[in-house]
Amino acid sequence: MSARPVPGKPGPGQESVWDYPRPPRLEPFAGSITVEFAGATVASTTRAWRVLETSHPPTYYLPRSAFADGALRDTAGSSWCEWKGAATYYDVVANGRVAHRAAWTYLHPSRGFEEIAGAVAVMAAMVDRCTVNGEDVIPQPGGFYGGWITSTVVGPFKGIPGSLGW
């Protein structure tokens, strides 16, 4: 198991992911979010939620209504989160292209996460571009977690090599 890393020191207007709680916390987010894929804006909103968990950059959940008609297609498979419950997946679709299982939702989330029932998160690495308040997002490393890194958060972030035991 890897030793806990040394958290980065947040500057003005920044948060350290090492100050986020475990179990995670859900909070409303009132900023602009866009998701682009295959030359189209497939989602846009100014109302969303963030899930904040120790060592992870925020995962953003957008209202289903933020997605363009036809941008989400039901797909097979599910997964289980110890905090939020059973997730179901969507393909993101635009202009004849498909990002397989690039989005997910909790239709019946666990207690404490009821507000995000039916809201949709997107794996930033699987689409062309995601933004938060106009800033391009960097996908959480490792290809497994769905956090979005912006200049407002400092790590190190779960998902980098050696972070399995964090």
Topology (SSEs and partners):
Layout: E1 15-16, E2 25-29, E3 33-37, E4 40-45, E5 48-52, E6 59-61, E7 72-81, E8 85-94, E9 97-105, E10 120-122, E11 129-132, E12 135-136, E13 138-139, E14 148-149, E15 153-154
Parallel strand pairs: 1-15
Antiparallel strand pairs: 2-5, 3-4, 3-11, 5-6, 7-8, 8-9, 9-10, 11-12, 13-14
InterPro entries: DUF427, DUF427_sf
Pfam families: NTP_transf_9
What does this structure look like?
- The protein is mainly beta and 166 residues long.
- The chain has no helices and 15 strands.
- It has one domain (22-154): Metal Binding Protein, Guanine Nucleotide Exchange Factor, Chain A (Beta Complex), CATH 2.170.150.
- The chain has strands at residues 15-16, 25-29, 33-37, 40-45, 48-52, 59-61, 72-81, 85-94, 97-105, 120-122, 129-132, 135-136, 138-139, 148-149, 153-154.
Q: Mean pLDDT, rounded to whole units?
A: 96
Identify the overall geometry: globular
What CATH architecture do you see? Beta Complex
For the record, give the distance between the C-alpha atoms at the N and C termini, rounded to a whole number: 8 Å
Provide the domain count.
Answer: 1
Largest sheet: 4 strands, antiparallel
What amount of the residues lies in strands?
35-45%
What is the CATH class?
Mainly Beta
Q: What is the number of beta strands?
A: 15
Q: Count the helices. How many?
A: 0
| Strand/helix succession | EEEEEEEEEEEEEEE
Helical percentage = under 10%
**What class would the helix/strand composition place it in?**
mainly beta
Strand order, sheet with most strands:
4-3-11-12
The CATH homologous superfamily: Domain of unknown function (DUF427)
The CATH topology annotation reads as Metal Binding Protein, Guanine Nucleotide Exchange Factor, Chain A
How many whole angstroms does the radius of gyration measure? Answer: 15 Å
Low-confidence stretches: none
InterPro entries: DUF427, DUF427_sf
